Amino acid sequence: MKHTLIATFCSLILLLSACGPAVTFKEPQPADSKNLNEIPRRLRGSYLCQSDSSILYISDKLMLHQYEGLEWVHESALDNEYRELGDTVTHIASGRSIHAERAGDSLWIPVQWNDTLFSLSFDNVLRKYQGRFFINTRYDKESWGVYMLELTRGTLEVRSISTENDWKSLKEITETAQDTVPVAVTATAKQFKEFVGSGGFSDNEKYIRLRR
Fold first, then answer.
1. Distance CA 5, CA 98 (A)
2. 107 CB contacts (<8 Å, ≥6 apart)?
């Protein structure tokens, strides 16, 4: 609850992916591809997330996820940083208030969060292979999380390696013996492309293009 209200009052960015991916690679993928200097024009625009109606904004350097809505909160979840008076909840330190709809002993409170999914930099690189785009985010010196973007007829899919079938397939292709998560993988360009071609990155979130 505290994080939700802080996001509402202060418009802070919530790093939803802070716990890291289930699988990491020793180097950006595909290993034989060059880094792109910017996000291609065909990907840029605004997209509506099918699962929660949040909006994904893509520019030449940035992918930003934004959500506005209502969250149901029991009044007992309010801590001593907030004061409730009627249909108003106030952040005591800043004095900023928001309107809340009461339903019995609970409140419907407006929430807003912004999550920077990707920003091109030394530690965040973008590569392309056969019309698909691969986001590579560095977690430490030899640990990269990799996600796949695929745009088809106005639907953008953001794909990850999250399912058990993905782990098993990737471990078999790369001959990785590790069983604990996160799985650290060393993959050649050929092995990575074999994994992609076999249906890897099966976990996905779909977004519908709104405008360029």
1. 9
2. 72, 73, 74, 75, 84, 89, 100, 101
Per-residue model confidence as pLDDT tens digits over 12-35: 222 234 456 788 999 999 999 999
Cβ-Cβ contacts under 8 Å for 62 (sequence gap 6 or more): 39, 116, 118, 119, 120
Structure tokens at 150: 């695929």
Cβ atoms of 68 and 112 closer than 8 Å: yes
Q: Which amino acid is at 32?
A: D
Q: Which residues pair with 183 in a beta bridge?
A: 23
Measuring CA to CA, which residue among 61, 39, 30, 36 is closest to residue 129? 30
> What is the model's pLDDT at position 6?
38
Q: First vs last Cα of the chain: how many Å apart?
A: 35
The residue among 206, 211, 209, 155 whose CA lies nearest residue 49 is: 206
Global pTM value: 0.74
